[in-house]
Amino acid sequence: MKRVLITGCLGQIGSELTLRLREENGRDSVIATDIRHVAGNEVIESGPFEILDVTNKARMMVLARKYEVDTIIHLAALLSAVAEEKPQLAWDLNMGGLVNALEVARELDLKFFTPSSIGSFGPGTPAVNTPQDTLQRPTTMYGVTKVSGELLCDYYYQKFGVDTRGVRFPGLISYKTEPGGGTTDYAVDIYYEAIKHKSYTSFIAPGTYMDMMYMPDAIDAIIKLMKAEPSQLVHRNAFNITAMSFEPEQIAASIRKFIPDFEMKYDVDPVRQQIADSWPDSLDTTCARNEWDFNPQYDLDKMTKDMLEKLTNKLKNDTVVRH
Ligand code: SER
Q: Tens digits of per-residue pLDDT, 165-185?
């Protein structure tokens, strides 16, 4: 991973991964790409940036050759709730982008990472301690693209020898970039509202357990998996990973440890609730721990403390900039 092309660099994962890799390996170690340019954006300003629509394979190839990258980290995709609103676009973008990125990796012999998700599971999957290898019949377009992506990555490894790797991410919680259109996003929104209004109206019902992880652990996981010796890997793609499993009342209780008068209300969104109900409660991460030493550091309270501190500072600075 000496020089990496990242797609979707302005997204929730991309923005933090780009900055972290540049910090560790230098500004030119990442060619950051996204479909849009945002003036003054920290990620764009911190090193090489190019506009890239991932459905344009020719341009992706031109950029990969121009910068002589050795790795593609393909992150551009629509998340679950948006994908349910625009299923055809989700298929075209999530699958079209992935197959293009895999083709570029195959032709140029590049290492490859792309994330799958808890969304790749469906109502028929064992919900508790969900095994690494199990039934996957998702009922969302997002899930359909994620399972297909897992299979495609395995295929490119087996058929063409492309060094594909990946994880199934749970809901990711971060303060730098706001996520867009995910079902697990309630667990991010809640921190913003807790700081601003000491109150949050959740679109996910109490009692709905989902796996979650704090972004620093997610970034560590990507880097660790990419560095793992191939001989250690029994699986290659779609490793189950998670750091915690909670339901809305538990994250509210964690916030109350720091903001005692925080109030939780509910106005359930049937679309996102149905998606959440079709996903597992808690994944078994044994394979990731054994094969490449996956070892997350943040539990719910440690994450809450850090989120509230960092977000409070961020919101203060945003106000200062705006005035
Ligand atoms: N966080 C994602 C979503 O909610 C799941 O991978 O769509």
A: 999 999 999 999 887 789 999
